[in-house]
Amino acid sequence: MSLPRLFVLLALSGVTAPLAAEDTILLWPQGAPGSMGTEDRDKPWLWSYPAAKENACGTAVVVCPGGGYGVHAVDHEGTQVARWLNSIGVTAFVLKYRLAPYRHPAPMQDVQRAIQHVRANAEKYGVAPKRIGVMGFSAGGHLASTCATHFADAKPQADDAVERVSSRPDFAILAYPVITMTESWGHKGSVRNLLGDNPDPELAKLLSNDLQVTPQTPPTFLFHTTEDTAVPVENSLAFFAACRKHKVPAELHVYQFGPHGVGLAPADPALSTWKDRLRDWLQNSGFLAEVTRAPVKGKVSVNGQPLKWGQVRFTPESPFAPVAFAMVRNGAFSIDAAHGPVLGVNKVAVVTMGDVAPGPTVADAKLVPKSNAITWNVQAGQNEFELDVRD
Description:
The chain has 391 residues and is an alpha/beta fold. It folds into two domains: 23-284, Rossmann fold (3-Layer(aba) Sandwich); 296-389, Immunoglobulin-like (Sandwich). Helix content is 20%, strand content 24%. It has eight helices and 17 strands. It has an eight-stranded mixed sheet with strand order 1-2-4-3-5-6-7-8, sandwiched between helices. A hairpin with a 2-residue loop joins strand 9 and strand 10 (305-306). Helix 2 (106-120) packs across helix 4. The chain is elongated and about 75 Å long.
């Protein structure tokens, strides 16, 4: 019995195209430190993927593909990710860092230099020097977490302009990252390729980046799946817990379903939402726009009665700026400066949520219709807000 054959035509306009970078940037034109030769494998570089000018928000991300420190998964964890970042207005740089037989500190030097290069040339690339992040997948996630926990300090008097700025990223994005170099739930291939067959215990501890988190570690977004057997979710859990311990802002998304190495997960409608959560986090954290936020407090009534239980939302005019919201209880709300609305005109919306009471109060949470048309000009300093909306 013959089996049916299925032919599928892949359109070149799909997620894999166009892949070509606009530019290739050698990080050390005169040769990288510790270089073993002059072949391509000895030359770390960046592929540049600028956001379209009409859509650019001024944020940049250096992307570190995975591959166990032995290869570069440069398509699904590099160029495809760069194009997605472009779609949300972010300029991307995909890093070709040195691999085995190169060992530590070569990859770390490469990612540090990459952040410094983008920051030193921020004006040239049209990005803000204080909104430059690092992103990594799998072993590239280990490299990104190394960048987030081991900094090359700025040397203001250096002859090399790139060395005059810090390598500390302003934020980190870790996708199913390798984190530990010591625990059983680490990734042995990454350990071997980065540190050798018999790594020095102190060096392995130094590069177990959950142990290196400090209050200076930048805000971090993590995503993982519990079905990942190659790099278990304990890696992300450990880094997230360390961020919590040191009061580093962090957000973690753990999906039940999904194997290792999914990239953007374009075929899975559930798992692919991780990038949407990332976009939300970047916006809400203020990494997609230059913003100043202000504290707000006030009172909210609906049809003349204090809103028992609900929410108030402030939406700025810029699509890149963060939305602010607060819980309303017994007609009052308050938002501190760190979470408050951005300065300028904001649309204000009120959502009723009933009450905390033994019996039912409303059928469902609902937007008070007329609140959608309200605007409020948020100013520097404390803002007082009083609103009575009609249903």
